[in-house]
Design a protein that fits this description.
This protein is α/β, with parallel strands linked by helices. 33% of the residues lie in helices and 19% in strands. The protein has a 5-stranded parallel sheet, sandwiched between helices.
């Protein structure tokens, strides 16, 4: 099984920003742990640019995509339309509980076109998404 994790804007700062929300471990360190423990072929891509995220989604030939679109979750019709157009299942993931945060974060443009949504379990949210695909 081949899975792609895509992280959006500012998620390259995991482990450095708002540690009370995102924790102290960098995503790169966590990704190394995931690749050695989950028994799947994992790829990782991070971008702060909406168009690059869309290009990566469209070009993917993976069995599944785990997407944390960051702030684009709440604003991007273009990412929503891309997910609806591709044939690869996408699971939406968020580290924090977006429903317990600012009200603008309660609306996800991508949930409706995603296979499922996992949020609020810290970095473990990615583990849970991988487990879903391994079902």
């Amino acid at each position: 099984m081949r899975l792609l994790i895509i992280n959006g804007p500012n998620l390259n700062l995991i482990g450095q920003r708002e540690e009370e929300i995102y924790g102290k471990v960098s995503f790169e360190s966590y990704f190394e742990e995931l690749t050695s423990s989950k028994g799947v072929d994992l790829s990782y891509f991070q971008t702060n640019i909406e168009g690059e995220m869309i290009d990566k989604l469209q070009a993917s030939n993976h069995d599944g995509i785990i997407l944390n679109a960051g702030g684009y979750t709440h604003t991007s019709v273009a990412i929503r339309d891309c997910i609806a157009a591709i044939k690869i299942p996408v699971v939406e993931v968020h580290i924090s509980n977006i429903m317990a945060r600012e009200s603008f974060r309660h609306m996800s443009m991508i949930s409706e076109v995603s296979e499922g949504c996992i949020f609020g379990f810290g970095l473990r949210s990615y583990d849970l998404a991988i487990d879903y695909f391994k079902k």
